[in-house]
Amino acid sequence: MIVGTKKIIANGLPLAKPVARYCPGILYKTASSLQKKIAQALFGLEIPPPAVFGMTVEEGCHVAYNGSPTDRTSHERTSMIENTQKPMLRFLVILTAASMIGIQGYTILFNNFAVEVVHLEGRHVGIIQSIREAPGFLALLAVYVMLVIREHRLSALSIVILGIGVAMTGMLPTYAGIMLTTLIMSFGFHYYETTNQSLTLQYFATNVSPLVIGKLRSIAAASSIAAALLIWLLGHFLSYKGLFLVIGGLVFLAGCWGLVQDPTHSSIPPQRLKMVLRKRYWLYYILTFLSGARRQIFTVFSIFLLVKIFHFTVQEVTLLFLVNNSINWFLNPLIGRAIIAFGERTLCTLEYSVVILVFLTYAFTTSKGVAAGMYILDALLFNFAIAIRTYFHKIADPADIAPSTAVGVTINHMAAVFLPAIGGLLWMIDYRIPFFAGAALGAVSLFFAQYIRLPEKSGHPDTL
Predict the structure, then answer these.
(1) In this structure, which topology does domain 82-268 adopt according to CATH?
(2) Following DSSP, what letter does each residue of 400-430 receive, concatenated?
(3) CATH topology identical between 82-268 and 272-454
(4) What is the Cβ-side half-sphere exposure of residue 168, based on CA atoms within 13 angstroms?
(5) How far apart are CA 292 and CA 281, in angstroms?
């Protein structure tokens, strides 16, 4: 074994580079037995106990490149959530939960409300869905909003706007009314997503942010389940107007709570509040665009396949929704840990390789159960997009995070402008064509993922 360089070899095999960069003691102590088994099964690797490095578990939490323990306080400042960061974590947890309750509550109620109350046709719903994606495409404008309002205030204000949009939906049961409330709701949701991603990367170190993002995604999944259960319970005695009002009201109150919080601290680098496009971020831009294109195929066509081709009932779709979010709630934190243990390129390679198989299975399977399983797997793999964010976190100038995140959200939504319409036309020719396109996107993503390289710096192993 070699310790003291950036290459570590155990049992004749090179270990994942992040094991060398990050604290082996913490990896060993925080990894679950399930995570260790997954690592062994998928990669033939083990998360080594610190003893492999000639250290105790305690010493393993302070290892430096030269193999000697470092100052405990210094390490804790870089690898653990400090007291100054806890207010921001609490702030993001509460607002993320509110955001998902709002968007999932709206999504669950929308189709039935549109058909049963407003009597909309398919062409109306298609236009409304395009309006829903427009604020995501305009997310880059958030940079200019931050010139007049601080970023964490914009986060909370976005949740307030999301709550208002959801609450108003039931009060305006017309085509024009739904277009208006959808636009309001979507601006709130997408601008919160923009600031949420940015604040997470600004306030948490590169070796902690994957865990934080995974935890937030887990909370989002649990909140989606809570929204579904709340609607199921209240639906027995409330009208659509009442349901939208209750869901929107809860989200609005959470946003108001956020407006009176100040989770910031002064050590965060000031952000460049202008448009930032840099050549060295080219791979982040490409992977973000491809991820957005794949998201459109997943959200628009996969569930439509289950309903149209395999005749899933509303009850079956609801059950699939609950199973899917339950799995995501459990596994999302493990995805964050896997990024730390094995690195972004490994996770992206695994994701895109399986995505190709998933979309090809969508196209060729005749089994209802297999199609449902692919939907669950597809949704799980989409959470691997965490790796794109953490890759950017490790290569970015700290002052570029806010503007570049806003640009990234816009790039992610570019495909939403044209892909659903084109995919719908291709579906009319053969329903398998959109899924062949999805497999092709997976192959292109797999190709570009091999270019993921992290900068190497000397010094403490937690720095990049």
Answers:
(1) Growth Hormone; Chain: A; (1.20.1250)
(2) GHHHHHHHHHHHHTTHHHHHHHHHHHHHHH-
(3) yes
(4) 18
(5) 17
Virtual CA dihedral for 87, 90, 95, 98, nearest 10 degrees?
Answer: -150
> For the segment 221-271, what is each residue's pLDDT rounded down to a tens digit?
999 999 988 988 888 888 999 999 999 999 999 999 999 999 988 788 888
Structure tokens at 334: 């493990």
Arithmetic mean of pLDDT, 131-158: 90
Based on C-alpha coordinates, what's the Rg of the chain? 23
The residues, ordered by sequence, that sit 6+ positions from 422 with a Cβ below 8 Å of its Cβ are none
> Can you tell me the distance from the alpha carbon of 116 to that of 264, in angstroms, rounded to the nearest whole number?
45
CB 283 within 8 A of CB 451: yes
Enter the tokens of residue 335: 């995805």
Q: Which amino acid is at 14?
A: P
| Domain 272-454: which CATH number of 1.20.58.220, 1.20.1250.20, 1.20.120.330, 2.130.10.10 | 1.20.1250.20
